[in-house]
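Need tokens for this chain, all 304 residues.
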Amino acid sequence: MTASPNTVRKATTPQQQLAKGFVFAALGLLLFACMDSATKYLTEHYNVPFVVAIRYLVHFALMVLVLAPRYSAPLLHTRRRGLVAVRSIALVVASLSVGIALHRMPQADTTAITFLAPILVVLLACPLLGERIGALGWVAAVMGFMGVLLIARPGSGLDMIGVLFALLAACANTAYQLLSRMLATTERPIALLFNTALVGSLVFGLALPWTWDNQTPTYLELALFIGMGAAGGLGHYFFTLAYRYAPASFLAPVVYLQLVWAGILGWVVFGNSPDHLSLLGMLIVAASGLMIAVKSRFTKKSTT
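Here are the structure tokens for all 304 residues:
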């Protein structure tokens, strides 16, 4: 028995598209949180550019070894090379800035400041991408930011250089997210992922001889270096894929889930259990994402 045309047409509804975008974004954000925890640990023993360089080189090597033999043409083919290159450079700046900030500040404070990026994405999605935000979207974005403040409560005894680099990372990440949305309709996720790995490897690889201090890593550090590169690659692949199913205005509040993952990992890995205000902030962050999901669902229904 074959499916009717109507069945095929309804196989993927707008709500299912948004759900796929949410799942891919959540998985990518979990991997980003794992990568940040590994980065923070490794920067206590190695300088930041070296740690970021190894991350990109491992990411690039895995792509070449695993994907290049089968997807060599899709990896290299892009339609808008200029924007793809700018997107990759934005991620390079964000990666280095976050690494420096993590080295100088606690992970929660660093993450909170860099999470100004989703707010900026919401502000810029309308004029740059033509996406309608709506009142409920603005409320959800503000709620997410309030949740960030409750979790990290920045501003008390923070290293100012670290704060500046965290702010720079937020600006660079905003450009990266907006460009990801713009390019998702014309570029393959695998090509975007490969270009970020390539540009990052070239930039940090050229500086590697001046950043390596001839220190031999332990087995644990070696595993963390490899895992960090793999987590970064898979995380960016999942998050880029999410933009193919959901608009930037929908994904902006969803990215606050990374704070939840960061709180869990901070407790498991570093023994930092969140206090009551942090837990409240996590609930507010989750609620903001649910508000956007409900808004998008009812908006789609009202237009059908």
